[in-house]
Amino acid sequence: MYEDNLRALLSQVKDGTLDLDEAIGHLKTLPFENLGFAKIDHHRKLRNGFPEVIYCEGKTVHQTQKIAKVLARTGNTVLATRASEQDYRGVLEVVPEAVYYPEARCIVIHPSSPNTSSTHYLAIVTAGTSDIGVAEEAAVTAEAFGNSVERIYDVGVAGIHRLFAQLDKIRKADVIIVIAGMEGALASVVGGLVDRPVIAVPTSVGYGSSFNGLAALLSMLNSCSSGVSVVNIDNGFGAAYNASLIIKELENRCQL
Amino acid sequence: MYEDNLRALLSQVKDGTLDLDEAIGHLKTLPFENLGFAKIDHHRKLRNGFPEVIYCEGKTVHQTQKIAKVLARTGNTVLATRASEQDYRGVLEVVPEAVYYPEARCIVIHPSSPNTSSTHYLAIVTAGTSDIGVAEEAAVTAEAFGNSVERIYDVGVAGIHRLFAQLDKIRKADVIIVIAGMEGALASVVGGLVDRPVIAVPTSVGYGSSFNGLAALLSMLNSCSSGVSVVNIDNGFGAAYNASLIIKELENRCQL
Amino acid sequence: MYEDNLRALLSQVKDGTLDLDEAIGHLKTLPFENLGFAKIDHHRKLRNGFPEVIYCEGKTVHQTQKIAKVLARTGNTVLATRASEQDYRGVLEVVPEAVYYPEARCIVIHPSSPNTSSTHYLAIVTAGTSDIGVAEEAAVTAEAFGNSVERIYDVGVAGIHRLFAQLDKIRKADVIIVIAGMEGALASVVGGLVDRPVIAVPTSVGYGSSFNGLAALLSMLNSCSSGVSVVNIDNGFGAAYNASLIIKELENRCQL
Amino acid sequence: MYEDNLRALLSQVKDGTLDLDEAIGHLKTLPFENLGFAKIDHHRKLRNGFPEVIYCEGKTVHQTQKIAKVLARTGNTVLATRASEQDYRGVLEVVPEAVYYPEARCIVIHPSSPNTSSTHYLAIVTAGTSDIGVAEEAAVTAEAFGNSVERIYDVGVAGIHRLFAQLDKIRKADVIIVIAGMEGALASVVGGLVDRPVIAVPTSVGYGSSFNGLAALLSMLNSCSSGVSVVNIDNGFGAAYNASLIIKELENRCQL
Amino acid sequence: MYEDNLRALLSQVKDGTLDLDEAIGHLKTLPFENLGFAKIDHHRKLRNGFPEVIYCEGKTVHQTQKIAKVLARTGNTVLATRASEQDYRGVLEVVPEAVYYPEARCIVIHPSSPNTSSTHYLAIVTAGTSDIGVAEEAAVTAEAFGNSVERIYDVGVAGIHRLFAQLDKIRKADVIIVIAGMEGALASVVGGLVDRPVIAVPTSVGYGSSFNGLAALLSMLNSCSSGVSVVNIDNGFGAAYNASLIIKELENRCQL
Amino acid sequence: MYEDNLRALLSQVKDGTLDLDEAIGHLKTLPFENLGFAKIDHHRKLRNGFPEVIYCEGKTVHQTQKIAKVLARTGNTVLATRASEQDYRGVLEVVPEAVYYPEARCIVIHPSSPNTSSTHYLAIVTAGTSDIGVAEEAAVTAEAFGNSVERIYDVGVAGIHRLFAQLDKIRKADVIIVIAGMEGALASVVGGLVDRPVIAVPTSVGYGSSFNGLAALLSMLNSCSSGVSVVNIDNGFGAAYNASLIIKELENRCQL
Amino acid sequence: MYEDNLRALLSQVKDGTLDLDEAIGHLKTLPFENLGFAKIDHHRKLRNGFPEVIYCEGKTVHQTQKIAKVLARTGNTVLATRASEQDYRGVLEVVPEAVYYPEARCIVIHPSSPNTSSTHYLAIVTAGTSDIGVAEEAAVTAEAFGNSVERIYDVGVAGIHRLFAQLDKIRKADVIIVIAGMEGALASVVGGLVDRPVIAVPTSVGYGSSFNGLAALLSMLNSCSSGVSVVNIDNGFGAAYNASLIIKELENRCQL
Amino acid sequence: MYEDNLRALLSQVKDGTLDLDEAIGHLKTLPFENLGFAKIDHHRKLRNGFPEVIYCEGKTVHQTQKIAKVLARTGNTVLATRASEQDYRGVLEVVPEAVYYPEARCIVIHPSSPNTSSTHYLAIVTAGTSDIGVAEEAAVTAEAFGNSVERIYDVGVAGIHRLFAQLDKIRKADVIIVIAGMEGALASVVGGLVDRPVIAVPTSVGYGSSFNGLAALLSMLNSCSSGVSVVNIDNGFGAAYNASLIIKELENRCQL
Q1: Last-in-domain residue among E56, E78, E109
Q2: Which residues cross the membrane (chains A, B, C, D, E, F, G, H) (predicted)?
Q3: C219 to chain D: which residues are within 8 Å by CB?
């Protein structure tokens, strides 16, 4: 993309159809839209494969509303994470087709249609019931980006037979997201049983010396199973984004 | 249990009374009950000696209610820890015989009858008055599982004669749970005076550099007395569970 | 694999060609080889896609030697990481075809032949010269498993034009491993420029408040770019293992 | 100042116009005003270049009110940071000309007039929208002290082209304040592109393992770009104070 | 013991066979032997069930030698942990019957004879080969105190079938010691499969963010399996001491 | 005290005026009063020089009320720290002469009369206005125990002349308590200027990387001035208790 | 610079003197020199004001030697920090004019001539004798870049009069670097006495709870004096680099 | 002292016997001696009660030698801590009367004669044998300053009767230094039994989660016994310095 743009622009300079100063301006002016408090990055879909996502925490309802409106105008999928119901009501005023997922705390606008011909899917596995909020953030994210998701909840290692009963569904997934708090052992156990990449999400579930997810985070980073990589504590979105990149690549590259 | 089950199942396969695919299914389908958000582990009593326990924090009242109902149906003892009064009211609607212990923040259904012929008991020793909430979680847990408990509260090392006055009762216990915040020194002192296992519970009582129980936790892990093992900060339940395992073993093995 | 094995075994039981006790034994005896101090997991390639790897740190030369010998006998690729030259000399005595990569501190036996028809490759990008040891561990691992590797070293953000000059090669890779110490900013910058999964490896390069890689680790976990997942400090092997899983999946699934 | 004062005082002693005990008293009595709970440091402007600033957190409204009144009486610029609206209403009662900046949470009285002949200015650059509160504290501080400020917000490295589009304005500034949470990579990237001092402010924006700004703090301290120094988490005021010292020096020394 | 002693002593006072001052002296002089740099605690076996143990780290060879000699004189079992070969040579000079276990780094003198009529034993389970040093410290300790030990090494969760193959031996043990570094997940997995107390020992095996065993320690303290208690990092001795207390109690109480 | 008691008791045994079993009881029964949830330590004044103090945090109003009542009955000084106004109202119901110090959050009953003949006093020095709450806890504690206190507030090192103006009063104190948050530098500066013991109290005043007082705590522990010892964060009471011990000793020993 | 280059290049494209593909190549190929293991950034002097510096730790002698040779060829000042004597001997072989400063552990080639007409200088102030190594790294760096340096060593707050005796020299400096270990209080004290920017360098000098410089680092970040910014632990180079940027700006801007 | 000096100096100015400029010089020139790398603080004894002490770690033998020589010339007591045998040999060359205490790692020159008429003494109590090095640093320090010391070693809480047997000697001391590693519980136990100030020294003795003394440090800071203050890890010198200040005050004030 970048090289093509350069070539086109330079051709215009050569042809004299583009003035030197204008060319310099173009080379500097890149495709974002300035709201003052935010610079909307319309370029992101081309560059990163997925459009910009609104992280609502630390933004006012008004800011979220304005960013959502600008992004929705493009027709692309819009995803807002960590959104409160109040955020949702604000967005709804300006984008009536916005949908809210309260357990996931996500707002979705124009979700990608699932690729029905694709056989790819990702499995989201949680250790306990309390991890489901993070899991739903991951699931809604992945689905908004057009992926199929298999939810496998409450199969932690304290009752490991619950995990083994679901092993087939897990093993056939293209990517596996494992979400666990407390000691986070589930990531290592799953990682030892599959031949697909495992993305581990530590959660802040636990008490005392879990130190708000630090125990699970360290546990997952030190996994004795080799195929495990880790994202931030409670970052269901990030795990799903990573998984979506892998599945998109599977779909794109295999069509070649 | 596991081997017997395997033998029975394989005999049926041999006899032709069990179809191959059914057998495969059985080998995979283990005894848990799927509520969607939770997979109730009915198998736990056989495997771990005690039935599944509901940890209420991070669960909605509705989830706690549903899990309690399913577990209560089995007739086993049901224990719910970290339960608020609101949790209790929810459970009471579906299990009228549920009892609430507010200081311990526990709900108990069908407590095990104490083994009256047993002379075994566990001592629960606290350093201060502020540790009593954690101590009661331990005491209610142990009693729900059918054990006798001796409560010895507020005998911290700042007035060590209070401890010595209770030493006989402590020394005769089968297991001793020591619960302390601040510097947690009581665990080492008790550990140096007895010939029974000491399970230490650091509490988040303290301020400033206690860092919510970290000081007591490190103190107990580094005890210069050898017979001390440690559970998580404020984890009265875990200590009582461990102690109950030891006493159950004493009762079971001695009947042989 | 698991299901097929079960089916075969149960068929033998049904046929009477396998005795009940033998069958029980088989169901328990899984494919590992017991050296006493180690249980070689011959099953791993089937289960995880890649054979067992020897992590030499904390093992005696003698132990490494014996494990390498047993693994090499299978004809599979053998990889030993964190291997000293002394470890290598020990292995060489029993496996003459072993090759040593001193910068990577790896021993390789029977490397997988590169898949010449594959157009897939992974890019390994380092911030500085001091990160090259970790990068070579990643590169040798990936190559031992049959992957093509593009090395792009010393392109940290202090001179960000060095990165941009290599952007094409990075963007066309299937997976990108970013290796950086100090503040680890390179992972976020690369993550913001590509549409492929980025696996970030913090290194212990740095001094003072880098706290042996903690600064880079936290930095990468908190990346504002969404497509970044993280492995342990200095864990070049782990990053390459993850990347290899993704590329293997690309190769396998696309042949379908 | 100090030496001149000493000389004047000693001359008076020599002349006999100043009594020994009075002289001793003067040598001890330095210019502060004692409110009991606070000792107002009227001397600070001479000593530090800028007058004393009121840090409102941990002070009662009444205390803030009284200190503001005493400082305002001198005619100097008065700045109160971390001020709530309640603090402002209290100050307004006794200093009617006080102005409140809610986003910056600052109260300003008698701001310094901007030096219109000066071409110096400082750039304040933020990674995201959520960093703007800290950035405004810096901007209002710098402006209250008579400096020109260029605000450049939401140009984080996830969309690095937004930064490059503003590079000219950043490069021409005399001092650059970079404000970022999460992984704080922006400080290193800016530091690598400019030849002016960069003062980095980590913010507590982020979640999970950002540990309330620790990740960004460590990242900035370990910057691979050499010209970066760091102030406390969320300390927009401190960064602006430092930048103002540098610009004041530029203005003062160049007039010589 | 204490009460009997008091009674005997007071009787002598009553009888006049013991002088008041002597009695006071006796009440103060408790059974330890003062070497100046150490006070040998001959009383410990009565009080704690096992005699004093020599922790060699931080002691000179000469100190270890002298303490060992004094303790050996009593005929009780003597155990010295963290002993170097140099420590051993020193002890051997004064106690020719001392035996050294290099892998465990322990010196043993007069080991307790195993109780051949006892069916009790403890299982020592390690995740990896590198944990064996700690495991042997535990095994030698337990055996020195007269217990039977079942060693089950290298069965970590990366190849969980290795664990299941040994499950029977583990489940029948009276106490289970689980020793693991890295993420320490093995403790939770074993804890979920057995109905006996599990004593977990985190080891300093691992690299990067294992932070010398901190990751495994936090993991074990936060185990989602209830019957797990924890001792200090690498503290094989402490785990075995705890386990021995439980087994001793099983043997003693069952004879009543 | 202890030896005299023993001698008296043993004499009674010898005389036959005390029965053996009674004597044993006395030797065990030490002077505390059991309220069930608390064991009031009446013995503390003899043993520690000051009576027991009620730490209200973590106690119910009812518990505080009952302990205060029992302690007040003895006529000794009663001090309750970290007391809310609600705690005070509860205590007032049962001890009408109780007095409340809201800034210090202390309740005092029967304060010791100041020793008017004593020339000893302690200086309490704070860095800022926000440290005054902790300082008043220290001051009220010291005064309740009968000491004279010199309050010197808001003399932090940012305006060090304010400190030098008060140096005489500080240097003549018998003990100096230095209370500071943020970087806590005041303790080192004072410690370098006086020849009396300095007890440093870090406070949780500060933001960002002060980590609730950790920065000041570490600073004070590492003071380059030799005569500084440290108590817990925000522990004004503890500092005053220590200082009172020293002054009491000065008063007691000098009368000999 | 960047804009001029673009303009020239685009003019050539317009003129037809530069081919499109060549132009694209130039736009991408930025001025660095690729040694394979390192990419020498010749562009840095233009971009950052000072040429690239060699950080020797983590580089082999051979790598340092090659980088030094390439950089020296340009005639610019070359600075290598954290250089061992062995590094120096390596560099000397290829750059005979290289000079070594053992206390600073720096190699300097072609130092900038001091600007004799400049009245600007920076003061380097240390708390103790043990901080001198870090201070000399700062001093040699600043001098290599052509600045005048005033060294003021061993004036820590334990004997604060030593500081006051040097106050004039400190106050007249343009920038002040304060270097201290232990509790780092000197930075706050100096910051409170001057009206120039203070750059604080925590050192790893200290023991116990200094945690290798963490105590001083936190102390300096939390300075109650406003004009203090901080660089990494022991990072004398970074502080001098920052200070040199400020002085360079003073010199450059004042000539306008 | 300060005021007298000022008065004398001003009198000379008044009399005309002192020139204005000389007077200014004197007011600035304070009594230290500049060795370049160190500024010897001869003023310290007047200001702090004890002369300057040489902390050898981080100084070259040559620096220690020169400082020792200058300090010894004054005839005051000279103390050098953390001195290696090499340091000692260096000092001995220039100060033949220097004495070395290898266990304490201290060099002493001109020790103060013990005050034979004084009945004051300090008790130094250690938990274990491994704490003796730190204890001897404290003891040698206190004795060098003219104090009597009672050593009570190896009385940790694992065998608490060893402590009680020494209680009389401890209770009669004027100040008690408690030195302990591991969990540091001894400080709290002693603090609960005495009415004298307790200065606690955490040591780095312990392993695993003692984190080089952090566990003991936190434990002591959080002591439930009120009369305990704390110095840095392994800082025997600091504790003795504090204790000496208290005893000096007892001796000085009681003579008035």
Answers
A1: E109
A2: none
A3: 183-185, 215, 218-219
- Using a pLDDT cut of 70, give the percent of chain A over it: 92
- Let me know if residue H100 belongs to a domain: yes
Higher per-residue confidence, A24 vs B200: B200
**pLDDT tens track for H172-211:** 999 999 999 999 999 999 999 999 999 999 999 998 999 9
pLDDT of residue G26: 61
- Per residue in H79-133, pLDDT tens? 999 999 999 999 999 999 999 999 999 999 999 888 777 889 999 999 999 999 9
Sheet holding A148-152, edge to edge: A148-152, A121-126, A175-180, A198-202, A228-230, C228-230, C198-202, C175-180, C121-126, C148-152
Closest CB to F222 among H47, H225, H232: H232
Render the burial of E107-142: b for 16+ CB within 10 Å, e for the rest.
Answer: bbbbebeeeeeeebbbbbbbbbbbbbbbbbbbbbbb
H102-137: string of b/e by CB count within 10 Å (b at 16+)? Answer: eebbbbbbbebeeeeeeebbbbbbbbbbbbbbbbbb
Asked whether residue H132 falls in the same domain as residue H104, the answer is: no
Record: contact D246-G197, CB cut-off 8 A: yes
Domain membership of residue H132 (yes or no) is yes
In this structure, what is the dihedral angle of CA atoms A179, C211, E184, A232, given to the nearest 10 degrees? 0
Q: G185 and G160 share a domain?
A: yes
- Find the CATH number of the domain harbouring H226: 3.40.50.1970
ipTM for this prediction = 0.87
Residue D12 domain-assigned (yes or no): no
Structurally, chain B folds into a number of domains equal to: 2
Whether G234 and G126 map to the same domain: the answer is yes
The answer on C128 and C209 residing in a single domain is yes
Q: Mutate which of H126, H154, H203 to test chain E, going by most E C-beta atoms within 10 A?
A: H154
Helical axes B132-144 vs B236-255, angle rounded to 10°:
30
Q: Are F171 and F95 part of one and the same domain?
A: no
Range of the domain at F85: 33-109
pLDDT band of residue D6 (cuts 50, 70, 90) is low
Q: Looking at the complex, report in whole angstroms how far the Cα of residue B250 sits from the nearest Cα belonging to chain C.
A: 30
| Best mutation target, D118, D223, D226, D248, to test chain G (most G CBs within 10 A) | D226
Per the CB < 8 Å rule, is C153 touching G38?
A: yes
Q: How many angstroms separate the CA of residue E179 from the nearest CA in chain C?
A: 14
Asked if F158 and F239 sit in the same domain, the reply is: yes
Q: Is there a single domain that holds both residue D153 and residue D225? A: yes
Instruction: List CB contacts (< 8 A) between C58 and chain E.
Output: 128-130, 205
pLDDT in tens, A128-163: 999 999 999 999 999 999 999 999 999 999 988 889
Chain A and chain E share a number of CB contacts under 8 A equal to 115
What residues in H contact G207, CB-CB < 8 Å? Answer: 57, 232-235
Going by pLDDT thresholds of 50, 70 and 90, the confidence category of residue H22 is confident
Hey, are the CB atoms on B27 and C6 less than 8 Å from each other?
yes
Last residue within a domain, chosen from F109, F133, F165: F109
Given a cut of 90, is residue F23 above it in pLDDT? no
pLDDT digits (tens, 9 = 90+) for E192-220: 999 999 999 999 999 899 999 999 999 99
Q: In terms of CA atoms, which chain G residue is nearest residue C165? A: G28
C-alpha pair distances (Å), H62 with each of G43, G102, G156, H36, H89? 44, 16, 21, 13, 11
Same-domain check for residues D215 and D143: yes
User: Does F8 contact E at CB distance below 8 Å?
Assistant: no
Alpha-carbon distances, residue G82 vs C155, F207, G54, G58 (angstroms): 21, 34, 9, 10
pLDDT score at C46 = 63
Q: Is C202 on the interface with D (CB under 8 A)?
A: no
Whether G106 and chain H come into contact, CB under 8 Å, resolves to no
- The residue among E141, E218, E220, E226 with the most chain B CBs within 10 A of its CB, best to mutate, is E226
E6, E13, E27 ranked by CB distance to F14: nearest:
E13
Residue D26 forms contact with F (CB below 8 Å): no
Three-state DSSP state, E139 = helix
In chain H, residues with a C-beta closer than 8 Å to the C-beta of D3 are 24
